[in-house]
Amino acid sequence: MAQWRDTMEQLVRDRERALLSYAYLVCGDAVQAQDLVQDALVRTFSRERPGLTSLKAEGYVRRAITSSYVDGYRRQQRWQRVQHLFKPDAVAPDRFGQVEAGSDVADALATLPPRVRACVVLRFFDDLTVPQIGRQLGIAPGTVKRYLSDGLGQLELALGPLEDATVEDRRAADERTGL
To answer: Mean pLDDT in each 10-residue stretch from start to end of the chain (179 residues)?
Structure first.
């Protein structure tokens, strides 16, 4: 029992900042990122996993972050379809609006739909291959490719042309792996 606690404490002590940054890239909101990391830690360490090292635990936590984000989005979509049934007719508008994001990339990522955003983050920030992204999100590789294409197109519109070397390097790597 003490082993999982030691593993969790080491992970939080050594990689908390990286996990929070990753969660922020996935969701685009600092408070939600903290919640995602907390939920992911609970999911990862709520049951015994024999031989769990800090490195393996980080992989579990990262996957749980993206899964929690996508699951939360799905719940929100279901709620939006029925929430009109529970609302009074007159609702006051939100006068505060959204807080301005700190960077152009964060702003551009925020415009992407959740699945597209998750695919882009997993591909370019986690450096996963298309099949790995498909397995992690439970979708077909062709769907991942479509989401990546759509996401890159939207990001290019928001940020300008992407660096050719990076795109060419990724294409060459995908061709070598048969993607």
So the answer is: 79 91 92 93 84 86 92 84 67 46 72 92 90 93 94 86 55 52
What is the model's pTM?
A: 0.53
Rounded to 5°, angle at Cα 5 from 15 and 35: 50
Q: Where are the alpha helices (DSSP H) in 28-176?
A: 30-45, 54-82, 104-110, 114-124, 130-137, 141-159, 164-176
157 half-sphere exposure, CB direction, 13 A CA radius: 8
The CA-based angle 12-75-24, given to 5 degrees, is 35
| DSSP 8-state secondary structure symbol assigned to residue 51 | T
Instruction: Return phi, psi of residue 95, to 5°.
Output: -85, -15
Query: What value, to the nearest 5°, has the Cα angle with vertex 156 and ends 151 and 161?
Result: 140
Instruction: Check if the beta carbon of residue 137 is closer than 8 Å to that of residue 66.
Output: yes
Q: Are 136 and 122 in contact (CB under 8 A)?
A: yes
